[in-house]
Specification:
2 copies of one chain form a homodimer.
Chain A: H1 8-23, H2 30-37, H3 51-72, H4 78-91, H5 93-99, H6 113-126, H7 132-154
Helix pairs in contact in A: 1-2, 1-3, 1-5, 3-5, 4-5, 4-7, 6-7
Chain A binds a DNA duplex (30 and 30 nucleotides) through loops.
DNA sequence: AAACATTGTGTATACTGTACACATGAGCGT
DNA sequence: ACGCTCATGTGTACAGTATACACAATGTTT
């Protein structure tokens, strides 16, 4: 048997992301995952303390990807950022759901690159004379708006062609 | 053994709602549920074709409760309705999550009492000369906004005292 | 080469949803 | 009142799940 897989942790994470994106959290199984990677179920426990811990890591990876997509948007006005955000959600429906499934007691924010970019856009639009609290509140409002829109789209409550997205 | 429980279906549904509200979908177990109600696990299958089917019914019940709360709001302007909506979400965090967990291929809307009330509020604010399409779009926007806000609150991303909720 | 730590395997357990055959008893027609 | 029928429950069984614990294989350090 080939012990020492190479970088099993990364392999597991990648496969886990793929599995979640394919079928969602509910269909995700440690055993199936380990079999795919070609390793015993228990091997997973050397790198993650539990299934839940692994899913948490997958979620973090999702947030990182989202931040990447955010940084990659050329025009950093609120409208463009909003569209990027929604696009990401639609491209990674199950991963996005996992990120906001309430597993983590608190989703990162201050440390989050995405939120910083959003706040800058809000500040830019406000035009200089805006209190920090106002910027924060408007950022939250904007986030809530696009987040809700993604969720409604993912749930099939609304269709893309019937929404009028704008700030 | 006491066959014919009386109204087992209702008893199961009630207990299921309670279980979901207590610990969320992931901790929900058919066996624990049946034990609580005092019946064999398989008895459940006389009334629901699967665990998933049962959870779907629980979700529907959640939507009905939400509509009740919506109808109970005295001032049916958008602000009051929005606050009712958010309050419901915060009072039933796990149930609310279940309702928007993507189990149902499409969440009801046209048949939904809540959405009708929302549309009336939007129409009232628009002041008469608004196309139906515009009313629909604004309703969706409003829904996305409050829905996203509830989700961010439930996830602990934002706190109640730092949001500035308004339309 | 020998000792040690890391990272995998093997075995076992308790729990899950659910399929299938059977038992119970309520409500009906006679 | 009797027996038939059928809805609604039980009993048994199975495959799949996460995961705890002891052990084996490998990589690393001395």
């Amino acid at each position: 048997m080939a012990y020492h897989h190479g970088d099993l942790k990364k392999a597991l994470l990648d496969a886990a992301v793929a599995a979640v994106e394919a079928g969602g959290v509910e269909s995700f199984s440690l055993r199936k995952l380990s079999e795919q990677v070609g390793v015993t179920p228990n091997a997973v426990y050397r790198h993650f303390s539990s299934r839940e811990d692994l899913l948490l890591a997958v979620g973090d990876l999702g947030f990182a990807q989202l931040a990447d997509a955010f940084e990659a948007t050329s025009d950093r006005d609120m409208d463009s950022l909003g569209r990027s955000y929604i696009q990401f959600g639609l491209q990674h429906p199950w991963l996005y759901r996992l990120m906001f499934s309430g597993r983590r007691t608190s989703v990162p924010r201050a440390e989050d690159r995405s939120f910083v970019i959003l706040q800058e856009a809000v500040r830019a639009r406000a035009g200089g004379e805006a209190t920090e609290r106002h910027v924060l509140q408007e950022s939250i409002n904007a986030w809530a708006y696009v987040h809700g829109m993604v969720m409604l789209l993912l749930d099939g409550v609304v269709e893309l062609d019937e929404i009028a997205f704008s700030f």
